[in-house]
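FORM 12-B: Structure-to-Sequence Request
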C-alpha cells in the first residue's frame, strides 16, 4: 500500500513512463540487499558485532512496531520531501527501507535460519515479483482506491498489521532470550 501511494502521489503525467524502470531498479536493489543480508547477515551480526539473534528479533520488532504505529496514526508510511525528484525515489525510500528495510532483513535472517536459504530465496523472489507488478499498476490501483475513498483506511489497516507483526517479533525475541538464559 505504501509504495502504491508514494508512486501515485509523486508522479505527474510526464513521469508515469518512469514507473516501470523505477520499479524494476528498486526491486533489483532490494533483492540484492536482502540476499546479501541473508547470506552474510548472521555471520556479520554474530561474529563481528556479537549480536545475538534474539536481540535482532527484538530490534527489528521495535522498528516494525514504530513503522506500523506511524502508518496507523498518520495514514502514511513515508512522507516525501517536496524538493525530491521523482526518479530519486527508486533506491531511497522504495528499495530501502520500504521493500528491504530493517524489519524485512530481520525476517530474511529468521526465515533462512529456520527454513533454509533455498526456500527463503524462492519466497523472496515471488514476493518481490508480486510487489513489482503492484508497483507497475500503482496509478490504476490508486485511482480505484481513491475513487472509493479507501486508500487511507487500507494504509491504516496495513499499519495495524505491521504494528502487530512488530509486537510478535519482540515477543518471539523475548521468548528466545528466556530459553537461552
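FORM 12-B RESPONSE
SEQUENCE OUT:
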Amino acid at each position: 500500500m505504501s509504495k502504491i501511494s508514494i508512486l501515485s502521489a509523486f508522479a505527474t503525467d510526464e513521469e508515469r513512463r518512469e514507473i516501470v524502470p523505477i520499479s524494476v531498479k528498486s526491486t533489483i536493489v532490494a533483492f540484492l540487499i536482502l540476499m546479501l543480508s541473508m547470506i552474510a547477515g548472521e555471520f556479520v551480526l554474530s561474529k563481528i558485532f556479537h549480536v545475538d539473534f534474539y536481540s535482532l528479533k527484538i530490534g527489528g520488532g521495535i522498528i516494525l512496531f514504530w513503522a506500523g504505529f506511524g502508518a496507523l496514526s498518520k495514514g502514511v508510511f513515508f512522507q516525501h520531501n517536496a524538493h525530491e525528484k521523482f526518479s530519486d525515489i527508486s533506491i531511497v525510500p522504495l528499495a530501502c527501507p520500504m521493500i528491504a528495510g530493517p524489519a524485512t532483513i530481520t525476517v530474511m535472517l529468521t526465515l533462512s535460519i529456520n527454513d533454509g536459504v533455498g526456500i527463503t530465496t524462492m519466497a523472496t523472489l515471488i514476493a518481490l515479483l508480486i510487489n513489482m507488478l503492484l508497483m507497475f499498476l500503482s496509478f490504476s490501483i490508486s485511482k480505484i482506491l481513491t475513487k472509493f475513498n479507501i486508500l487511507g483506511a487500507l494504509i491504516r489497516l496495513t499499519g495495524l498489521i505491521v504494528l502487530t507483526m512488530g509486537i510478535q517479533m519482540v515477543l518471539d525475541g523475548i521468548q528466545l532470550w528466556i530459553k537461552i538464559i
